[in-house]
Amino acid sequence: MTTGRTETTPQPLAELATVTEACDRLEDTVTSEKDRWATAQHATAETRRRQHPGRTTWAPNDQEEPVPAPPEVVDGEGEAWTRTGNGTWYMLSFNPATCDDERDADYLTWRELVDEYGPLTTHARTV
Hints:
The chain has 127 residues and is of the alpha+beta class. It has one domain (19-126). It is 27% helix and 12% strand. The protein is built from three helices and five strands; from the N terminus they run ααββββαβ. The chain has a five-stranded antiparallel β-sheet with strand order 1-5-2-3-4. A hairpin with a 5-residue loop joins strand 3 (80-83) and strand 4 (89-91). Helix 1 (19-25) packs across helix 2 (33-51). It is globular. Residues 30-81 are annotated as: Disordered.
């Protein structure tokens, strides 16, 4: 699955809010982990939109891939993803030796990416 990938140095993207940070700030009123994560994804999208009005952010409910699609996006945890020539997305920093989530190795559709790893924000290099 990783054939053809080139190792790149991850870009520091700490200026973006993350889903983990939002999840940590949520009150215990959201009970299931799935609901808690989804709530945090939407909160992170709103925070990013306020903090970075010049960058586009898509929340998990934004299912349609934008046209034209950006060449790179940053996911909810600050990882950069790039769009392939066939319209799928892959994580730029994926390294099988250090990644513990097998899903990070997959080539995802826009819907899969925004649902599982959203919100997605345009990369600073593409703004």
